[in-house]
Amino acid sequence: AAAGSRAAAGGRAGPAALPRSCVENSVLSCNASFSLLFAEAGVQTNRNKRKKQILKIGHGGTLDSAATGVLVVGIGKGTKMLRAILAGSKKYTAIGRLGKATDTLDATGKVTEEKPYDKITKGDLENVLQKFTGDIMQVPPLYSALKKDGQRLSSLIKRGEAVEAKPARPVRVYSLSLQRFQPPLFTLDVECGGGFYVRSLVSDIGKELSTCASVQELTRTKQGPFTLEEHALYEDKWTIDEIARSLERCTSLLPGEPSHKKFKTEDSGETAVSCEDKR
Protein backbone atom coordinates (compact mmCIF):
# COMPACT_ATOMS: atom_id res chain seq x y z
CA ALA A 1 0.00 0.00 0.00
CA ALA A 2 1.21 3.44 -0.76
CA ALA A 3 0.12 7.03 -0.48
CA GLY A 4 1.35 10.16 -2.24
CA SER A 5 2.30 11.34 -5.70
CA ARG A 6 4.94 8.86 -6.86
CA ALA A 7 4.62 5.14 -7.46
CA ALA A 8 6.56 1.96 -6.97
CA ALA A 9 7.30 -1.44 -8.39
CA GLY A 10 10.43 -3.39 -9.11
CA GLY A 11 11.81 -6.39 -10.89
CA ARG A 12 15.51 -6.94 -11.58
CA ALA A 13 17.98 -7.69 -8.82
CA GLY A 14 20.11 -4.85 -7.46
CA PRO A 15 21.56 -3.71 -4.16
CA ALA A 16 18.13 -2.87 -2.74
CA ALA A 17 15.89 -4.50 -5.32
CA LEU A 18 12.89 -6.68 -4.53
CA PRO A 19 13.36 -10.38 -5.27
CA ARG A 20 11.63 -11.23 -8.56
CA SER A 21 9.60 -13.90 -6.75
CA CYS A 22 8.13 -11.15 -4.58
CA VAL A 23 7.37 -8.65 -7.32
CA GLU A 24 6.39 -10.54 -10.44
CA ASN A 25 3.02 -11.81 -9.20
CA SER A 26 1.73 -9.24 -6.76
CA VAL A 27 -0.90 -6.68 -5.89
CA LEU A 28 -0.20 -3.33 -4.23
CA SER A 29 -1.30 0.26 -4.58
CA CYS A 30 0.68 3.17 -5.94
CA ASN A 31 0.38 6.54 -7.67
CA ALA A 32 1.79 8.66 -10.46
CA SER A 33 5.42 8.51 -11.63
CA PHE A 34 7.00 5.06 -11.63
CA SER A 35 10.34 6.16 -13.12
CA LEU A 36 12.39 6.57 -9.93
CA LEU A 37 11.46 3.21 -8.48
CA PHE A 38 11.68 1.49 -11.86
CA ALA A 39 15.26 2.72 -12.08
CA GLU A 40 16.04 1.59 -8.52
CA ALA A 41 14.72 -1.87 -9.32
CA GLY A 42 16.53 -2.15 -12.65
CA VAL A 43 13.33 -2.03 -14.71
CA GLN A 44 13.30 -0.25 -18.07
CA THR A 45 11.68 3.20 -18.01
CA ASN A 46 11.46 3.28 -21.81
CA ARG A 47 7.93 2.19 -22.72
CA ASN A 48 8.94 0.26 -25.87
CA LYS A 49 11.80 -1.56 -24.16
CA ARG A 50 9.65 -2.33 -21.14
CA LYS A 51 7.16 -4.18 -23.34
CA LYS A 52 9.83 -6.84 -23.84
CA GLN A 53 10.23 -7.41 -20.11
CA ILE A 54 8.21 -9.86 -18.05
CA LEU A 55 7.00 -7.37 -15.45
CA LYS A 56 3.39 -6.25 -15.97
CA ILE A 57 1.51 -3.70 -13.88
CA GLY A 58 -2.18 -2.74 -13.88
CA HIS A 59 -4.48 -0.86 -11.52
CA GLY A 60 -7.72 -2.08 -10.00
CA GLY A 61 -9.88 0.95 -10.77
CA THR A 62 -9.36 4.61 -11.55
CA LEU A 63 -9.53 7.46 -9.07
CA ASP A 64 -10.79 10.91 -10.00
CA SER A 65 -7.84 13.05 -11.04
CA ALA A 66 -8.36 15.39 -8.06
CA ALA A 67 -9.00 12.60 -5.54
CA THR A 68 -6.64 10.90 -3.11
CA GLY A 69 -6.79 7.54 -1.39
CA VAL A 70 -6.52 3.83 -1.97
CA LEU A 71 -5.50 2.62 -5.43
CA VAL A 72 -4.73 -1.09 -5.69
CA VAL A 73 -2.18 -2.17 -8.30
CA GLY A 74 -1.54 -5.67 -9.62
CA ILE A 75 1.91 -6.90 -10.66
CA GLY A 76 2.45 -9.76 -13.10
CA LYS A 77 -0.25 -12.42 -12.77
CA GLY A 78 -1.66 -10.32 -9.95
CA THR A 79 -3.23 -8.12 -12.63
CA LYS A 80 -5.58 -11.00 -13.47
CA MET A 81 -6.67 -11.30 -9.84
CA LEU A 82 -7.70 -7.69 -9.30
CA ARG A 83 -11.34 -8.11 -10.25
CA ALA A 84 -11.83 -11.02 -7.84
CA ILE A 85 -9.85 -9.43 -5.00
CA LEU A 86 -11.60 -6.06 -5.31
CA ALA A 87 -15.14 -7.37 -5.75
CA GLY A 88 -16.22 -5.82 -2.46
CA SER A 89 -17.37 -2.29 -1.71
CA LYS A 90 -15.49 1.01 -1.75
CA LYS A 91 -15.57 3.73 0.88
CA TYR A 92 -15.09 7.47 0.42
CA THR A 93 -14.93 10.57 2.54
CA ALA A 94 -16.16 13.59 0.58
CA ILE A 95 -16.31 17.27 1.43
CA GLY A 96 -19.07 18.98 -0.54
CA ARG A 97 -19.69 22.68 -1.09
CA LEU A 98 -23.23 24.03 -1.23
CA GLY A 99 -24.20 26.88 -3.53
CA LYS A 100 -21.65 26.32 -6.28
CA ALA A 101 -21.76 24.00 -9.31
CA THR A 102 -18.91 23.32 -11.75
CA ASP A 103 -18.64 21.59 -15.11
CA THR A 104 -16.52 18.78 -13.62
CA LEU A 105 -18.69 18.53 -10.48
CA ASP A 106 -15.60 19.17 -8.33
CA ALA A 107 -13.27 22.01 -7.36
CA THR A 108 -11.08 21.64 -10.47
CA GLY A 109 -13.80 22.77 -12.89
CA LYS A 110 -15.24 26.06 -14.06
CA VAL A 111 -18.12 27.47 -12.04
CA THR A 112 -21.34 27.06 -14.02
CA GLU A 113 -23.94 28.07 -11.44
CA GLU A 114 -24.28 29.68 -8.01
CA LYS A 115 -27.37 29.55 -5.80
CA PRO A 116 -28.24 30.55 -2.23
CA TYR A 117 -27.96 27.91 0.49
CA ASP A 118 -28.38 29.91 3.71
CA LYS A 119 -31.76 28.37 4.60
CA ILE A 120 -30.55 24.77 4.39
CA THR A 121 -30.25 23.09 7.79
CA LYS A 122 -28.40 20.02 8.97
CA GLY A 123 -31.74 18.24 9.29
CA ASP A 124 -32.62 19.08 5.68
CA LEU A 125 -29.39 17.51 4.48
CA GLU A 126 -29.77 14.40 6.63
CA ASN A 127 -33.31 13.84 5.34
CA VAL A 128 -32.15 14.12 1.73
CA LEU A 129 -29.41 11.51 2.23
CA GLN A 130 -32.05 8.84 2.81
CA LYS A 131 -33.14 9.21 -0.83
CA PHE A 132 -29.65 8.27 -2.02
CA THR A 133 -29.22 5.07 0.00
CA GLY A 134 -29.78 1.59 -1.38
CA ASP A 135 -30.24 0.77 -5.07
CA ILE A 136 -30.59 4.03 -6.99
CA MET A 137 -30.21 5.37 -10.53
CA GLN A 138 -27.31 7.72 -11.21
CA VAL A 139 -26.15 9.75 -14.22
CA PRO A 140 -22.33 9.61 -14.53
CA PRO A 141 -20.40 12.92 -14.86
CA LEU A 142 -19.41 14.11 -18.33
CA TYR A 143 -15.84 14.43 -17.09
CA SER A 144 -15.18 10.77 -16.38
CA ALA A 145 -13.20 7.72 -17.46
CA LEU A 146 -16.24 6.33 -19.29
CA LYS A 147 -15.56 5.93 -22.98
CA LYS A 148 -17.12 6.78 -26.33
CA ASP A 149 -15.64 5.08 -29.40
CA GLY A 150 -12.72 3.91 -27.28
CA GLN A 151 -11.85 7.35 -25.90
CA ARG A 152 -12.50 8.83 -22.47
CA LEU A 153 -15.32 11.34 -22.31
CA SER A 154 -13.10 13.74 -20.37
CA SER A 155 -10.48 13.65 -23.14
CA LEU A 156 -13.10 14.33 -25.82
CA ILE A 157 -14.45 17.33 -23.90
CA LYS A 158 -10.98 18.78 -23.41
CA ARG A 159 -10.48 18.61 -27.19
CA GLY A 160 -13.65 20.60 -27.67
CA GLU A 161 -15.77 17.76 -29.02
CA ALA A 162 -19.47 17.56 -28.22
CA VAL A 163 -20.30 14.85 -25.70
CA GLU A 164 -23.74 13.71 -24.57
CA ALA A 165 -24.40 12.61 -21.02
CA LYS A 166 -24.55 8.87 -20.49
CA PRO A 167 -27.99 7.57 -19.45
CA ALA A 168 -28.72 6.94 -15.79
CA ARG A 169 -27.60 3.53 -14.62
CA PRO A 170 -28.24 1.45 -11.49
CA VAL A 171 -25.71 1.81 -8.65
CA ARG A 172 -25.72 0.72 -5.03
CA VAL A 173 -25.07 2.76 -1.88
CA TYR A 174 -24.56 0.56 1.18
CA SER A 175 -24.30 3.43 3.65
CA LEU A 176 -24.34 7.22 3.52
CA SER A 177 -23.92 9.47 6.55
CA LEU A 178 -23.35 13.13 7.32
CA GLN A 179 -20.22 13.58 9.44
CA ARG A 180 -20.04 17.35 9.58
CA PHE A 181 -22.21 20.32 8.55
CA GLN A 182 -20.56 23.72 8.47
CA PRO A 183 -22.18 25.67 5.60
CA PRO A 184 -21.27 25.95 2.85
CA LEU A 185 -19.22 22.80 3.52
CA PHE A 186 -20.47 19.37 4.54
CA THR A 187 -18.65 16.06 4.98
CA LEU A 188 -20.05 12.68 3.92
CA ASP A 189 -18.95 9.10 4.49
CA VAL A 190 -20.05 6.86 1.62
CA GLU A 191 -19.83 3.11 1.10
CA CYS A 192 -20.83 2.06 -2.40
CA GLY A 193 -20.50 -0.55 -5.10
CA GLY A 194 -18.72 -0.35 -8.44
CA GLY A 195 -19.53 2.28 -11.05
CA PHE A 196 -20.58 4.84 -8.46
CA TYR A 197 -19.55 8.51 -8.74
CA VAL A 198 -19.38 10.56 -5.55
CA ARG A 199 -19.26 13.73 -7.67
CA SER A 200 -22.67 12.88 -9.14
CA LEU A 201 -23.99 12.11 -5.66
CA VAL A 202 -22.98 15.51 -4.27
CA SER A 203 -24.38 17.30 -7.33
CA ASP A 204 -27.69 15.43 -7.01
CA ILE A 205 -27.86 16.24 -3.29
CA GLY A 206 -27.54 19.92 -4.13
CA LYS A 207 -30.37 19.72 -6.65
CA GLU A 208 -32.57 17.87 -4.17
CA LEU A 209 -32.02 20.74 -1.71
CA SER A 210 -33.08 23.29 -4.38
CA THR A 211 -29.56 24.66 -4.63
CA CYS A 212 -26.40 23.30 -6.25
CA ALA A 213 -23.30 21.57 -4.91
CA SER A 214 -19.90 20.25 -5.94
CA VAL A 215 -17.12 18.16 -4.41
CA GLN A 216 -14.40 20.14 -2.66
CA GLU A 217 -12.25 17.18 -1.56
CA LEU A 218 -12.52 13.43 -2.13
CA THR A 219 -10.62 10.58 -0.49
CA ARG A 220 -11.09 6.86 -1.14
CA THR A 221 -10.58 5.18 2.23
CA LYS A 222 -11.28 1.58 1.20
CA GLN A 223 -11.10 -0.51 -1.96
CA GLY A 224 -12.05 -4.15 -1.55
CA PRO A 225 -10.24 -5.42 1.57
CA PHE A 226 -7.62 -2.64 1.51
CA THR A 227 -8.05 0.40 3.77
CA LEU A 228 -6.14 3.66 3.93
CA GLU A 229 -5.59 3.51 7.69
CA GLU A 230 -4.33 -0.07 7.93
CA HIS A 231 -2.38 -0.62 4.72
CA ALA A 232 -1.24 2.71 3.29
CA LEU A 233 2.47 3.16 2.62
CA TYR A 234 3.12 6.89 2.59
CA GLU A 235 5.26 8.66 0.03
CA ASP A 236 8.29 9.21 2.27
CA LYS A 237 8.58 5.41 2.51
CA TRP A 238 8.28 4.62 -1.20
CA THR A 239 11.46 2.58 -1.49
CA ILE A 240 11.92 -0.95 -2.78
CA ASP A 241 12.64 -2.29 0.71
CA GLU A 242 9.57 -0.63 2.24
CA ILE A 243 7.36 -1.89 -0.58
CA ALA A 244 8.67 -5.42 0.00
CA ARG A 245 7.73 -5.15 3.68
CA SER A 246 4.36 -3.69 2.77
CA LEU A 247 3.66 -6.57 0.39
CA GLU A 248 4.39 -9.05 3.14
CA ARG A 249 2.24 -7.15 5.64
CA CYS A 250 -0.78 -7.22 3.32
CA THR A 251 -0.73 -10.93 2.56
CA SER A 252 -3.23 -11.74 5.29
CA LEU A 253 -5.92 -10.20 3.07
CA LEU A 254 -5.35 -12.66 0.24
CA PRO A 255 -6.36 -16.32 -0.10
CA GLY A 256 -3.67 -18.90 0.60
CA GLU A 257 -0.74 -19.09 2.96
CA PRO A 258 0.68 -15.87 4.47
CA SER A 259 3.74 -15.70 2.23
CA HIS A 260 4.51 -12.90 -0.20
CA LYS A 261 5.96 -15.41 -2.67
CA LYS A 262 2.86 -17.43 -3.59
CA PHE A 263 -0.88 -16.88 -3.42
CA LYS A 264 -3.69 -18.64 -5.19
CA THR A 265 -7.32 -17.76 -5.70
CA GLU A 266 -10.11 -20.28 -6.12
CA ASP A 267 -11.27 -18.58 -9.33
CA SER A 268 -8.06 -18.27 -11.31
CA GLY A 269 -5.37 -20.32 -9.58
CA GLU A 270 -3.00 -17.43 -10.28
CA THR A 271 -0.29 -16.40 -7.83
CA ALA A 272 -0.22 -12.91 -6.34
CA VAL A 273 0.55 -10.50 -3.48
CA SER A 274 -1.06 -7.26 -2.41
CA CYS A 275 -1.06 -3.78 -0.83
CA GLU A 276 -2.48 -0.29 -1.41
CA ASP A 277 -1.87 3.43 -1.99
CA LYS A 278 -2.81 7.08 -2.10
CA ARG A 279 -3.21 8.57 -5.44
Describe the structure using short key phrases.
single chain, 279 residues, alpha+beta, Pseudouridine synthase, seven-stranded mixed β-sheet, three-stranded antiparallel β-sheet, 14 strands, globular, disordered N terminus, disordered C terminus
Task: Give a short synopsis of this structure.
By secondary structure, the chain is an alpha+beta fold. The protein has helices spanning about 20-25, 35-40, 45-50, 80-85, 120-130, 155-160, 200-210, 230, 240-250; strands spanning about 25-30, 55-60, 70, 75, 90-100, 100, 110-115, 135-140, 145-150, 150, 170-180, 185-190, 215-225, 225. Strands 3, 5, 8, 11, 12, 13 and 14 form a seven-stranded mixed beta sheet that branches.
Structure explained in plain terms:
The protein has helices at 20-23, 35-41, 47-50, 82-85, 122-129, 153-158, 198-208, 228-231, 240-249; strands spanning 26-28, 57-59, 68-69, 73-75, 90-98, 100-102, 111-114, 134-138, 147-148, 151-152, 169-182, 185-192, 213-223, 226-227. It contains nine helices and 14 strands. The strands form four sheets. Strands 3, 5, 8, 11, 12, 13 and 14 form a seven-stranded mixed beta sheet that branches. It has a three-stranded antiparallel beta sheet with strand order 1-4-2, with no helix packed on it. The chain has 279 residues and is of the alpha+beta class. It has two domains: 1-88 and 224-279, no CATH class; 90-223, 2-Layer Sandwich (Pseudouridine synthase). It is 21% helix and 25% strand. 42% of the residues are buried. Mean pLDDT is 75; it is low at 1-24, 30-34 and 257-279.
